């Protein structure tokens, strides 16, 4: 069920009139209604939840939150008035805190137990503003600053105010007061140069600089397509580049595909409508049982990928999770190599007890049809575990030898403890497969 939160600029400058005869606030209200009509064409929109926040101080700025009905949302939208300051930093913090209100209670972030892409609450914040100077009671600001402190319990466990399933998009209205005689440029809508743009980009979103009603409609069509079930991950290369393709020149400096900040799509199960998964993306630390607190995590996991070709490993009876990557320079580069039968292993630094890079928890692989790239998430250190399990099933017929048990015990010492058993929120280990295997260690 996607959450669609509209953050509307209600500073006094939104009263300025365009050459269309309407104010910026009128255009913002109309844009929300147009977006809802466009989104309503998709049958999946039946599960949408709409929220509305403006630039007033907390709690008055929350016009429609978790408890308010759709009718309340529409009424509050129509009643918005532009009278205040451009306090976008505080209002953004209010929006993120509203989205995160129930996450600690539901356990969706699974702190200290690995990150589960299949535990998510996709949310998009769409802010509509005129891009004027940022103002507050203390004066004019050149940069966007979000308050660092919040009364929200558990907020200290994530370094940023947002989470990996929340993205920010900004429609910055630049429609002039006088009609332009210059022809309107065709093509895509450029990002804006206002202070909100870096904040959009760091969440995995973007801004749009809107100079006409046509451009606004184009942006709204684009935003409807952005409603995807997924989480944002930082992918970064570790180690050397792969050998250049035949006929290509090897370039030593940093390439766009070396570091990408993109979604992985988390598709719902067709039968239940809810995503299903088995394995987490590991934490960037080894759990310390004696520590009273957890180290704060980054909102987006940093996943390193090695360009050394490896064999994709899958065996019967051991589940894996597969997530398609959003198109990016990285996916383009992998697809251009046309190697659907090899893969690149992925790691999270400091996830292992005795290794800075950590052990592989999965791999990136081009689809057989070479039309997309998928992230396969496997059991931790799967190149060691899967051959062991293959031997257990095919060679030992589930009657492990002492040597096999010793090898399995050694493997378990390299695996973060939260992979074993069921976590507080319930990691589904495919009929508790690990506990099933641990049964064989009992002499």
From TrEMBL:
Coiled-coil stretches: none
A Pfam family recorded for this sequence: VWA_2
Ranges of residues in domain VWFA: 3-227
UniProt-listed GO biological process terms: snRNA 3'-end processing
Cellular component GO terms, alphabetical: integrator complex
Transmembrane segment boundaries: none
Protein name: Integrator complex subunit 6
Organism name: Dicentrarchus labrax
């Amino acid at each position: 069920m996607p959450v669609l939160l509209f953050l509307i600029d209600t500073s006094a400058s939104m009263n300025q009139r365009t050459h269309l005869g309407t104010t910026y606030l009128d255009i913002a209200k109309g844009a929300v209604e147009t977006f809802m009509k466009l989104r309503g064409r998709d049958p999946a929109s039946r599960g949408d939840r709409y929220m509305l926040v403006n630039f007033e101080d907390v709690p008055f700025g929350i016009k429609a939150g978790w408890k308010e009905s759709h009718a309340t949302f529409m009424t509050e939208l129509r009643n918005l008035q532009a009278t205040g300051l451009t306090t976008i930093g505080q209002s953004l913090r209010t929006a993120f805190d509203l989205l995160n209100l129930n996450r600690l209670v539901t356990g969706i972030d699974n702190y200290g137990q690995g990150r589960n892409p299949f535990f998510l609450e996709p949310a998009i914040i769409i802010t509509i503003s005129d891009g004027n100077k940022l103002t507050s009671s203390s004066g004019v600001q050149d940069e966007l600053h979000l308050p660092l402190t919040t009364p929200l319990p558990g907020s200290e466990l994530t370094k940023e105010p947002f989470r990996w399933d929340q993205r920010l998009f900004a429609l910055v209205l630049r429609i002039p007061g006088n009609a332009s005689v210059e022809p309107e440029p065709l093509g895509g809508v450029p990002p804006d140069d206002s202070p909100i743009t870096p904040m959009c980009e760091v969440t995995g979103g973007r801004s749009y600089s809107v100079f006409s009603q046509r451009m606004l409609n184009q942006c709204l069509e684009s935003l409807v397509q952005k409603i995807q079930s997924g989480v944002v991950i930082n992918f970064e290369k570790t180690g050397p580049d792969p050998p250049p393709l035949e006929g290509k020149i090897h370039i030593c400096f940093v390439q766009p595909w070396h570091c990408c900040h993109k979604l992985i799509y988390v598709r719902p199960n067709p039968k239940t409508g809810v995503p299903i998964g088995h394995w987490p993306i590991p934490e960037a630390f080894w759990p310390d049982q004696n520590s009273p607190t957890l180290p704060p995590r980054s909102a987006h996991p940093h996943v390193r990928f090695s360009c050394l070709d490896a064999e994709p490993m899958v065996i019967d009876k051991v589940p894996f999770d597969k997530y398609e990557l959003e198109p990016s320079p990285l996916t383009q580069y992998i697809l251009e190599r046309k190697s659907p039968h090899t893969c690149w292993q992925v790691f999270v630094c400091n996830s292992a007890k005795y290794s800075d890079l950590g052990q592989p928890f999965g791999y990136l692989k081009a689809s057989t049809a070479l039309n997309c790239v998928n992230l396969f998430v496997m059991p931790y250190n799967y190149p060691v575990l899967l051959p062991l399990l293959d031997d257990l099933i095919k060679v030992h017929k589930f009657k492990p030898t002492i040597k096999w048990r010793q090898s399995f015990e050694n493997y378990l010492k390299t695996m973060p403890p939260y992979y074993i058993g069921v976590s507080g929120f319930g990691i589904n280990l495919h009929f508790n497969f690990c506990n099933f295997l641990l049964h064989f260690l009992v002499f």
